Amino acid sequence: MSEKKMLVLNMALKEDSSIVQDYISYHANVWPEVIDDLKKRPIGRMRIYNNENRLVMLLEVDKDFDIRDGIHIEPPVPKVKEWSTIMSKLGKKAESGKLDSWTEMNQVFDTNDYVSKS
Fold first, then answer.
1. Three-state secondary-structure class, residue 30
2. Which residue has the higher pLDDT, 106 or 117?
3. CA–CA separation, 77 vs 91, rounded Å?
4. Are residues 34 and 77 in contact, defined by beta-carbon separation less than 8 angstroms?
5. What is the CA angle 2-64-56, rounded to 5?
6. Are 71 and 43 in contact (CB under 8 A)?
7. Residue 38: other Cβ atoms inside 10 A
8. Which residues in 89-107 are b (16+ Cβ under 10 Å) and which e?
């Protein structure tokens, strides 16, 4: 069994409750091609949480996984590309005009650093 790591990423959706609901609805019934792509990548486990239009993704991957290579296999199969295009249309644009995308967060605290392991 290979060693795992957890990546935490965040991004923002457009500040529109119907857009947020669309995003949640799509993720309530993810297309099988998208799930197959994640398994082949391989993504061990992905969880996405939201608070209004802010999203946080917890991504469990192998220790040697590099997020700079992307979450999906490149080049994407047509259905995964279609999914990604739909999801990107729901994203918020930053002040620079660039679309907000999944960005890795830095860990600043872990109770394991303070609580002894017995």
1. coil
2. 106
3. 21
4. no
5. 100
6. yes
7. 19
8. ebbeeeeeeeebebeeeee
Cis omega (within 30 of 0) for bond into 78? no
Instruction: Give the span between the Cα atoms of 35 and 46, in whole angstroms.
Output: 10
| 117 has pLDDT over 80 | no
Which domains does the chain carry?
A: 4-113 (3.30.70.100)
| Global confidence as pTM | 0.88
Single-letter residue type at 41: R
Q: How far apart are CA 15 and CA 87, in angstroms?
A: 14
Is residue 65's pLDDT more than 80? yes
CA distance 111 to 4: 19
